Amino acid sequence: KGRLFIAQDFVKGANYWDLLQKRLTQGNVFSELEVVQFLFSLLPVLEHIHSQGVIHRDISPDNIILREIDNKPVLIDFGSIKQISAEVEYQLAKESGQPSSASSNTIVGKTGYSPNEQLRSGQVYPCSDLYGLGATAIVLLTGKEPRDLFDPYDLDWNWQKFVRVNPQLARIIDKMLAVLPKDRFQTATEIIEQLQLVYPQFAKTQQFQSNYNLQTAPTIVTGNSSQTRQNNYTQPIQPNSQKSFSKFLYPLIAIALLGGAFTAWQVGFKPETVVEEETISPNQTAALIAGSEEKEAGIKAYQAGKYNEAISLLEKSLANKRNDPEALVTLHNARIGNDKAYTIAISLPISADLNAAEEMLRGVAQAQKEINDSTGKINGFPLKVLMINDKNDPDEAVKVAKQLAKNKEVMGVIGHLSSGVSLKAADVYEAEKLVMISPTSTSVKLSDKGDYVFRTVPSDELAGAVLARYLFRQLKLKKAVVFFNSESNYSESLKNAFSKDLLREGGDVVWEFDFAKPNYSPANALKKAKELGAEIIMLADNTATLNEALQVIQVNDGDLPLLGGDSLYKPQILEIGRKDALDMVVAIPWHIQANPNARFNRAADNLWQARVGWRTAMSYDAAIALIRALAISPSREGVKEVLNSDDFAPAGAERNIKFDKNGDRNQKIQLVQIKPGSSLGYQFVPIEFN
Predict the structure, then answer these.
(1) What is the pLDDT of residue 162?
(2) How far apart are CA 531 and CA 509, in angstroms?
(3) Is residue 218 part of a domain?
(4) By the 8 A CB rule, do 59 and 188 touch?
(5) In the chain, fewer beta carbons within 10 Å around the N or the C end?
(6) pLDDT value of position 90
(7) What is the pLDDT of residue 239?
(8) 251 and 333 fall within a common domain
(9) Residue 261 dihedral angles phi and psi, to the nearest 5°
(10) DSSP secondary structure string, 16-83?
(11) Distance (Å, rounded) from C-alpha 373 to C-alpha 661?
(12) 191 and 57 in one domain?
């Protein structure tokens, strides 16, 4: 009868504006990592609707709901629906000769969240939505409304004086908020690619379905008729277009069809390849980790052989940012210049896990500084370190290993991060007779890889056993549920070691849930686990499934006690898990507070001006092992023989570095527990357990 109806899904939960107000009453705002996770959840959604020719037009905190059932942000209230409904009503009234309060000049948007071109003329582009998402992000970070953050005279956002975030994130958000559309990111994918370089822990393939991050698109019905046809926008959408009624309805139906489109849509990330097929030389230390202008210029000068210029620039960069390990390594390499030196390499997961990469590199940088600053050096010669990005990818690591093996100057390699990556690359190192020492790969399978493969981190066999004994002997519990990733060697290894030792102790794993399985639901998994009598949760996740582990922690809501492997020793667990992760116990190889007065700990505090983690300590030990071996027998074969000898046991970060016949290092596992404290609100605290 000429009436207009809009039907939409009901999404139970609170919108982000209300969530922010609640936090503000408690003196809190959204953390940096919470906002990054928020962006990674919504950007693929925007990329998809933009690919369908649809612009949301009204992105703001009150149009995004944190869905109660799974704690996912859901985009609601499409402004384009509001505009098209007004257009349809106007055209219906015009064609029927009836009066209408609707206008064909409706402009949708919110002051502060919508860009100038949208509010002034109604023109919208995909980057108009990205502007709204950027404005939403800084509101969540600062707790301030846009009017308090935007200077209308200078047309500039002044949000960074209210909150400190990673400078690279700040640059990304500022580009999203550029005044002119041409100066912004043009697609959501561009932002995703930038964010994944800074926060690789969130950059993993995800599948978004219609009930995941997008409210099932509204359907508008007029009378009893319906039409189905899609229309893709190729030009900015004008609010006063005088097209016929049916053409107003077509884009509307396209929006309604979005739900089906999401059921099979996947987003994948493929960083471009860095390693080429020629031999890698020690001068190939491109800026792997973004930094200051002085750092970038210093590394370029080093590459060009302008060593004095590089030294000056890198010293300036380090004066402003002392904890940059790449700048420190390159500085020491520049000081060596073309002089004779011993060379080792470190293979880093920079594209996949920047935090872990920096932690590993700090350990090597500290060892390099100590030996190069010493009087004797390595039999009178300094140490040069070659840095390479393997992306934590097995195939890329194999390529890296082959190229390093061709470079006869490289006497040993430190790496790789993940067990699966190290296992694949280890075959190359063994065949090419080049020593590899992993400071972080813990899979028990690495023990059988050969005479040239070592590690300074204890294997999962030890970590799993300690966690199982802690559960049974300390907590007096018996039944556990294990969450793991069957696609990860590390995760499988830790899960198996824990399960075997728990059974030996007299306990039992009542169920195993695989993060890699389709249709996995943390809420359903926990419900089933409790029905089966689970008394404790064991999280054997890996880097790629950190988000899934966080979901389990949040859904559990402090109900069952939590245990975890070293992959959970990350700031995200503290920042995002917060009170839900309180009292969780994690097994790691080393903690600085367990022996705060150790020589390495005091040196690390002084050098980096911050406490370091276990990856730094284990990487330091790997570098020290290579340095001491080179001092005894400076050849590839000689290094392998020294590391395998019974009397090789140099002092490491805390304990002597000694390898068994399998290349393993059997040292004590340190348990840590999450407690209130530190600038993050929570911290890992070492606990005693024998």
Answers:
(1) 86
(2) 13
(3) yes
(4) no
(5) N
(6) 52
(7) 40
(8) no
(9) -65, -30
(10) HHHHHHHHHHTT----HHHHHHHHHHHHHHHHHHHHTT------SGGGEEEETTTTEEEE---HHHHH
(11) 33
(12) yes
In this structure, the dihedral spanned by the alpha carbons of residues 236, 239, 240 and 241, taken in order and rounded to 10 degrees, is 50
What H or E segment, with its residue span, contains residue 360? helix 354-373
The pLDDT of residue 54 is 82
Q: Looking at residue 561, what DSSP letter applies?
A: -
Total structural domains within the chain: 3
Please check whether residues 191 and 319 belong to one and the same domain.
no
Q: How many CB atoms lie within 10 A of CB 190?
A: 18
Q: Which of 670, 588, 651 is nearest to 367 (CA)?
A: 651
Domain C-terminal end among 267, 301, 318? 267
Burial of residue 532, with CB atoms counted within 10 A of its CB: 0-12 exposed, 13-18 middle, 19 or more buried: exposed
By the 10 Å C-beta count (0-12 exposed, 13-18 middle, 19+ buried), 243 is classed as exposed
- Active-site residues: which are they? 58
Is the distance from CB of 638 to CB of 378 less than 8 angstroms? no
Strands 342-348 and 219-222: unpaired
155 and 24, same structural domain? yes
What pTM value is reported for the model? 0.63
- Asked whether residue 515 falls in the same domain as residue 486, the answer is yes
Do residues 427 and 395 lie in contact, with contact meaning Cβ atoms separated by under 8 Å?
Answer: no
What is the rounded distance in angstroms from the CA atom of residue 537 to the CA atom of residue 517? 18
3-state secondary structure 397-413: HHHHHHHHHHCCCEEEE
Task: Please report how many Cα atoms fall inside a 13 Å half-sphere around the Cα of residue 627, on the Cβ side.
Answer: 29
Pairing of strands 453-455, 436-438: parallel
* Whether 307 and 447 share a structural domain: yes
339 and 376 share one domain: yes
Q: What is the SS3 assignment for 416-476?
A: CCCHHHHHHHHHHHHHHCCCEEECCCCCHHHHHCCCCEEECCCCHHHHHHHHHHHHHHHCC
Spacing of C-alpha 259 from chain mean position? 28
Ranges of residues in the chain whose predicted pLDDT is under 50 = 1, 82, 99-106, 204-278, 284-285
Q: Is residue 278 part of a domain?
A: no
The contacts of residue 205 (CB under 8 Å, 6+ apart) are 266, 267, 268, 269
3-state SS class at 286: coil
CB 641 within 8 A of CB 633: yes
Whether 281 is covered by a domain: the verdict is no
Residue 593 domain-assigned? no
- Residues 34-70 have pLDDT tens digits of 899 899 989 998 998 888 888 888 899 998 998 877 7
What CA–CA distance (Å, rounded) separates 195 from 310?
Answer: 28
